[in-house]
Specification:
single chain; 483 residues; alpha/beta; Rossmann fold; 17 helices
C-alpha cells in the first residue's frame, strides 16, 4: 500500500540506465535504497517506489511504463548528462507534468552537472536540486561522492527531508474534509464513476465477514470502487439475480471469500454462495476465490462445496488477495490502453514493430522504438517476460528486433527461440516479415544463423544510429508489400 492512498506509487525514479553501467557497480540502486530508507525513517508507513531496475520485468510496452509515471505522486530525477541526452527520460518528465502541472512534485538529485552546451529542460525545477558530487583539482572536475561518506549522508538526509515534507503536505491535501461521506460507503454506491475500476465482493458467511470487510476497506483506500450486495439479501431469487447481475455488469473483478460452510438457501432456493459464483462465472468476470489458511477443503463433507474450495487460494486476506486483485486491475488497464491498429491513408493497418531488449539495454531499445514511431509504425518495447500482453505483442508483430549489448549470443538465441515458440502457440495469422540483431556498444560476438531463422545483423556498436534501424524497418516493410 502506498503512503499516499490516491496513488499507485509514492515515488517514480527517473534515470538513465547508462549511468547504472558507467557508475561504480550498484551505486545507483544503492542510492535509491539509501534515499528510501532515509525518507521512511520519518513516516508512519513504508513507501511504494517505482525503480525500473527492480520492476521492469512486470511491464512490456512503453505505454505501460508511462502509465506508472502518471500513477506516481512524486518524480525523483537522478540527473546526469546521460539523463539530459535521453529522449526517454525527457518523455517521462513530460508525461509526469502533463498529468499534474506542479514542478514542486519533481525532486532532483544531481550526480553530474551538465557538460558543454547541455542544459536541463526549463520545466526541471532548480529549488529542489541536491548535488551528489564534489569538485577536485585545478579544473574542478566533478567527482561522484562515495556512498557512506559524511557529505553523502548529509545530502541524502537533506533530499529525504524535502521529499518527506512534500509527501506529508500531499497527505494533508488529500485528507477528506470533516463531514464528508465515508469513502468506502460512497464507492459502494450503485453508480460507479466513469473510468473508475470496480470490484464486486460477494456476500459471505459470518466466519469470513471480518476478512471481507478488510479487503473492501483496503481496496477502497486505493481508489477502487467496491460493490457489495445489500444486506439482508432480497426476499426473492428474481430480485437478487437482477440486483447482483447489475453489479456484475459494472465490475472488473469478482472476489468471493469462502468460509467453513456455504451460505444458506433462504428464499434463493439454493445456497447464496453457489448462486453468486455461478452468475459471475456465466458472465466471464475475472474471479478470485479465497479461503482462510486454517480451512482444509479435504475435511469438508459437502462434495459440491468441497470442489469449490479446492479451486480457491489460501492466504492472508489483505496482503495477498488485494495485491493479486490490484495486479489484475493494472493488467486490465494496460490492455485497455493498448492502441488500436492504426490505419494509413489507404486504410491499411500500420505495421507493428517489436523491439526486444535485456533490461540493461532498455534505454537504447527505447531510442529504437522512438525512431520507428517517427516513421508511423506501431512500436512496442518488450523484455520477453511471458504473459498475455507479451503473447499478443508477439502475435501482432510484423518485424522483431533484438538488442544485443552487454549480453551473450546465447541470450539472444534463447530470446529468439522464445518469441517464435510463443508466436506459434498464439497461432499468429500474420507472417513475420523481418527480424534483426542490433549490435549496441560494446561490440559483441556475431550470431548469424540461430534457431528461429536467419536474422539481419545491424552493427551499430561503433556508431549508435537509431535512424539506421528505422531505415532498415522501412526497407523491409516496403520490400514485402503492405501489412
Amino acid at each position: 500500500m502506498a503512503y499516499l492512498p490516491n496513488y499507485r506509487w509514492d515515488l517514480f525514479i527517473s534515470y538513465a540506465h547508462k549511468d547504472e553501467r558507467n557508475f561504480p557497480p550498484g551505486w545507483v540502486s544503492g542510492f535509491v535504497g539509501d534515499l528510501r530508507m532515509a525518507i521512511e525513517n520519518g513516516l508512519s508507513r513504508p513507501l511504494e517506489v517505482f525503480f525500473d531496475q527492480a520492476e521492469q520485468k512486470a511491464y512490456n510496452t512503453i505505454e505501460s511504463i508511462l502509465s506508472e509515471v502518471r500513477s506516481s505522486a512524486l518524480l525523483v530525477v537522478l540527473a546526469t548528462p546521460s539523463w539530459i541526452k535521453s529522449d526517454w527520460c525527457a518523455r517521462e518528465l513530460r508525461e509526469f507534468l502533463s498529468t499534474r502541472a506542479d514542478t514542486t512534485r519533481v525532486m532532483v538529485a544531481e550526480f553530474r552537472p551538465p557538460e558543454g552546451e547541455l542544459t536541463y529542460p526549463p520545466t526541471l525545477p532548480d529549488n529542489t536540486r541536491k548535488e551528489f558530487y564534489t569538485r577536485a583539482g585545478v579544473k574542478a572536475v566533478p567527482l561522484l561522492m562515495e556512498r557512506g561518506e559524511r557529505d553523502y549522508q548529509i545530502c541524502i538526509q537533506t533530499l529525504a527531508e524535502d521529499i518527506r515534507c512534500r509527501l506529508l503536505a500531499l497527505a494533508r491535501e488529500d485528507r477528506p474534509q470533516a463531514g464528508a461521506p465515508d469513502a468506502a460507503v460512497a464507492q459502494a454506491a450503485a453508480a460507479v464513476p466513469a473510468g473508475a475500476h470496480s470490484v464486486l465482493i460477494a456476500a459471505c458467511t459470518p466466519d469470513v465477514a471480518d476478512e471481507s470487510d478488510a479487503v473492501a476497506d483496503y481496496l477502497a483506500s486505493q481508489g477502487i470502487a467496491v460493490l457489495r450486495p445489500a444486506e439482508p439479501l432480497p426476499p426473492s431469487r428474481e430480485q437478487f439475480e437482477m440486483e447482483f447481475g447489475a453489479m456484475l455488469d459494472r465490475a472488473d473483478v469478482y472476489i468471493h471469500l469462502l468460509g467453513r460452510k456455504k451460505g444458506s438457501a433462504n428464499a434463493l432456493g439454493s445456497s447464496f454462495t453457489e448462486v453468486q459464483l455461478t452468475m459471475a462465472e456465466a458472465r466471464g468476470v475475472e474471479t478470485f476465490l479465497w479461503l482462510p489458511d486454517e480451512l482444509d477443503p479435504h475435511r469438508i463433507q459437502d462434495e459440491e462445496y468441497r470442489s469449490i474450495l479446492l479451486r480457491a487460494r489460501n492466504g492472508s486476506a489483505v496482503p495477498e488477495l488485494t495485491r493479486a486483485v490490484l495486479d489484475k486491475l493494472q493488467e486490465i488497464q494496460r490492455a485497455a490502453e493498448k492502441p488500436a491498429p492504426a490505419l494509413d491513408a489507404a486504410g491499411m493497418r500500420a505495421p507493428v514493430v517489436l523491439v526486444n531488449a535485456d533490461p540493461e539495454d532498455f534505454d537504447l531499445a527505447a531510442e529504437l522504438v522512438q525512431a520507428c514511431a517517427d516513421n508511423d509504425c506501431i512500436t512496442l518495447l518488450d523484455d520477453c517476460e511471458i504473459n498475455e500482453i507479451a503473447r499478443q505483442n508477439w502475435a501482432d508483430a510484423d518485424v522483431i528486433a533484438f538488442v544485443q549489448g552487454n549480453v551473450s549470443p546465447r541470450w539472444l538465441t534463447s530470446r529468439i527461440i522464445n518469441v517464435h515458440r510463443e508466436r506459434a502457440i498464439a497461432n499468429s495469422s500474420g507472417a513475420l516479415r523481418g527480424q534483426a540483431a542490433i549490435y549496441a556498444p560494446p561490440p559483441p560476438k556475431r550470431v548469424g544463423m540461430v534457431a528461429g531463422g536467419r536474422i539481419v545483423e545491424l552493427d551499430l556498436s561503433q556508431e549508435w544510429n537509431p535512424a539506421r534501424f528505422a531505415q532498415w524497418v522501412k526497407a523491409t516493410l516496403c520490400s514485402q508489400g503492405p501489412a
